[in-house]
Amino acid sequence: MPVTDFQLIIVGGGPAGLTAGLYAARARLNVVLLEKGAAGGQVMNTDWIENYPGFPEGITGLDLAEKFAAQAERFGLITKLCEVKSMDLAGPVKKIFLEGGETLTSQAVILATGARPNQLGIPGEKELTGKGVSYCATCDGPFYRGLEIAVIGGGDTAIQEAVHLTKFATRVIVIHRRDELRASKHLQEKAFANDKIEFIWDTVVTEVIGSKEVEGLRLQNVQSEEEAILAVKGCFVLVGIRPNMETLPLEQLDNDDGFIITDKEMRTSQPGVMAAGDICSKNVRQIVNATGEGAVACLAAENYLSSLN
Ligand code: NAP
Which residues are bridge partners to 98 per DSSP? Predict the structure, then answer.
């Protein structure tokens, strides 16, 4: 068996990584979890979670993330705060190269690097990010107390956060490119019942207008091609996610546009490398399946490590 620093390295400290870490620590593996910021991943940006079992009253994203981390730490999981630069996952010794020149080695790796928000790529978006354009309702919602704002998107995130934003804004206008939401029926019902939420259907945003801060949005109806200006102070772009794949050696891993392809045991195409959570190629991205995948990935890692003996 190759000599390595660790048996298992977990990259990423969201729900998937922390659950893999919990299982690995309980299995007494020589494991380390690498995380560049506070553990918790995207959950930290979620205001209120009502569909994670065990919390009948709901729980904030921050509290849930802290509980995940505390539970893993109780069994001795070590988290190293560091920035991964690149990886070499081919062969029996997996190498993780860190910023600053340090290299960590292991026999097995679990990739749990997650995903991040998509951007629209329209004029004004980049320039006005942080000045009225936001990708995180939980972080920035309170800035819009008493104001009118727009939410772009029609998925679970957009609709859940539109409802959340009505706590602060006087009016939330959801702009969706189709005439039907992608969000789950339960969230749709909540939004339709909320009289602070209005919908603009079949419409895309073509420009964020404003010099120093957001003053409005240029809209275009996709059917009639008619243009309009919507005056708003804030604009939440909630149009899906893309994989955090920049540090991953995609040439060594089967993937679908950067989302890692796994089998049912969360094994990737590279022996000894598992993936879990939002970085995986899949249809459902919920906290509950991310945690399940973290557990499955750890068990697959244990099986792989046993097979080396
Ligand atoms: P999503 O399900 O991929 O939805 C993205 C939305 O943005 C869609 O409505 C899409 O329109 C729209 N969109 C994408 N690109 C666009 C563009 N360039 N311009 C305008 N609109 C655009 O993403 P998500 O809502 O972030 O959800 C991600 C995953 O997390 C999903 O699996 C979701 O179920 C899950 N999630 C669950 C919860 C919950 O259960 N409480 C909360 C948040 C997220 P189209 O519909 O036309 O494609």
Answer: 84
Nearest to 141 by CA among 59, 210, 211, 48: 48
Residue 244: C-alpha distances to residues 113, 117, 121, 196, 265 (Å): 6, 10, 18, 34, 21
Q: What pTM does this model have?
A: 0.78
In this structure, what is the dihedral angle of CA atoms 106, 97, 66, 143, given to the nearest 10 degrees?
-160
Q: For 88-137, how does the pLDDT look when each residue is reduced to its tens digit (9 = 90+)?
A: 999 999 999 999 999 999 999 999 999 988 999 999 999 999 899 998 88
User: Does ligand 1 come within 6 angstroms of the Cβ of 282?
Assistant: no
State whether 258 and 230 are in the same domain. Answer: no
How far does residue 186's CA lie from ligand 1's centre (Å)?
15
CATH number at residue 34: 3.50.50.60
Any domain includes 56: yes
One of 63, 82, 88, 136 is an active-site residue; which one? Answer: 136
Q: Same domain for 95 and 70?
A: yes
